[in-house]
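Many groups now describe folds with learned vocabularies. In that spirit, our science desk offers one protein's residues alongside their backbone shape tokens.
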Amino acid sequence: MPNQNQEPPWGKRRNPQTPEELMALLIKKIQDFFADKKMPGSGTEKDAPAKPTHPFASLGKILAIILTGIILQGIYSSVYKIAPNEVGVILQFGKYSRTVSSGLHVILPYAENLYKVEVADIKKEEFGFRSRSPGQVTTFDRQGFDKESLMLTADKNVINVAWIVQYKIKDPVEYLFKVKDVKQAVRDISESVTRRIVGNMDFDYVLGNRDLLAASVKGELQSELDNLHAGVAIGTVQFQDINPPDPVKPAFNEVNEADQDMKRLVNEAEEIYNKEIPRASGDAQKIIQEAQGYAAARINNAKGETERFLDILKEYKNAPDVTRKRMYLETMQGIIPTVQSVYVIDKNQQGPLPLLNISGSKDLPSAGLK
């Protein structure tokens, strides 16, 4: 019984194991098909007899070559890779089919088309200038972009505005098929919106409110792009430089200096006002309160004197002599302590006679009046 593991004398036939071997075998078959070979003889080599020429033999070979190229191209293009920052949009016979994420994928050759869209990258559009050498120290070119940056404000002044718009792709299908040139659309709409908003503001307001201006431009720009179904999302609108045009900068600087001087004088005046007015108000309140206190004291004193007088009058009516004498003694008691010298005048005497020197006496304040 013959051994089953014994190989035939012409060797065991091995099938291709890898795609590379399959491709090499296919190429070898094609080469063998189109190569001119000699027929081997039994003892000596002889030339093979000439085959009759077929009229469509060359055409068949050309068609076979074309078909083989088409098949190879289809196999090569059926496998594709999507990068991490991309998505793939697949069209099947010209109609949207699906969107695939990053990784390795397969499509139907000649039936499906692939469009790669960089959705994670931030795109930037510059207006009024261009970045020439980006890096740690970025240089800018501002010459030749006046048509983009020169604008007219609401108070009929010309202003030079430079700004940046950053955006990302949020809808790949709309980005690819709704608008032909999204980049140009972003530029045109951004310039239009900025000119309209700046044209509704005064010159000084534009200079001092960059953040409000950027927020207004961003909102209107996003709304316009959404209406166009551009498929992009505005990330940042930033105004880099807002200045008057170069020919009027000297006059503008003089106006700014005058404005600064005016504000300085106003601040100094307000400082003096805030210092003097409260002090004058305090002095006025002090005078008013002193006057009110003096008036209250005078009125109370007058009322007290009136009450005392009425009481004395009442007592006087009851006992006139006693009351009169008591009033005289009380009055003299108040006067005598202030008297420096006391003189007694006799009507028959030609000159005054001193009675007693009591100016330095402390023990007898009323001496000599008995």
